[in-house]
Design brief:
Length: about 160
C-alpha cells in the first residue's frame, strides 16, 4: 500500500469528482442532443472520462507513481472488488478510446457500424456499481470531504435520471 498524505488525497478528490461528474453529465446531455457536431464533441469527452475512470477504478499492476488509484482511498479492496462491476465488462473501453478517439490509427477502419458506436447509457449503467462501491468503501471521514459530499449529492443520488 502506498503512503500518501490525507492532504494529497483530499486535494486529488477534486479530480475524482470531476471525472465522475463529467461521465454523468455527458451521458445526460448525449441523451437529448441531436446536432451531430455537438454529439461528437460530447462523445469524445465521454470517452476520455470513461477511460480515465477505468484506469482509476481498475488500476494496472504496474502503474505510474503519480497515478491516482482507487486503492489509495478505499477501506477494503476485497469488499470493493465484490461490489464493483467486473473489470472484463468495461475493459474494452480503453482500447476503444485509444483507437477511436485518442490516436489516429488504421485500426479505426476495423470499427464497423455495429461496434463503432459509443453506447453511453449502457456504459454509464455499468459504471454505476463501481462508483457506488468506491463511495461505500470510503471511510466516514473521507465521505465528509467536500468533493465526495458533492459526488454523493450531484451524481450518486442522481444516477437514476440516466
Amino acid at each position: 500500500m502506498r503512503k500518501i498524505t490525507n492532504y494529497t488525497l483530499q486535494k486529488a478528490s477534486e479530480h475524482i469528482f470531476y471525472e465522475i461528474w463529467m461521465l454523468y453529465n455527458t451521458t445526460i446531455i448525449l441523451r437529448t442532443t441531436t446536432n451531430q457536431l455537438s454529439k461528437n464533441v460530447l462523445l469524445e469527452s465521454f470517452a476520455i472520462h470513461t477511460r480515465n475512470l477505468f484506469d482509476f477504478f481498475y488500476p494496472k499492476k504496474h502503474f505510474n507513481s503519480s497515478d491516482i488509484l482507487v486503492t489509495d482511498y478505499i477501506l477494503s479492496k476485497k469488499i470493493y472488488n465484490k461490489q464493483k462491476t467486473k473489470k472484463i465488462v468495461l475493459k474494452y473501453l480503453v482500447r476503444k478510446a485509444d483507437k477511436q478517439i485518442a490516436h489516429l490509427t488504421y485500426t479505426r477502419n476495423k470499427y464497423h457500424q455495429k461496434i463503432k458506436g459509443w453506447y453511453f447509457k449502457d456504459i454509464s449503467d455499468k459504471f454505476k456499481p463501481t462508483v457506488n462501491a468506491f463511495f461505500n468503501n470510503l471511510s466516514e471521514n473521507r465521505k465528509k470531504w467536500s468533493n465526495f459530499e458533492r459526488l454523493k449529492i450531484e451524481v450518486i443520488n442522481q444516477f437514476h435520471k440516466i
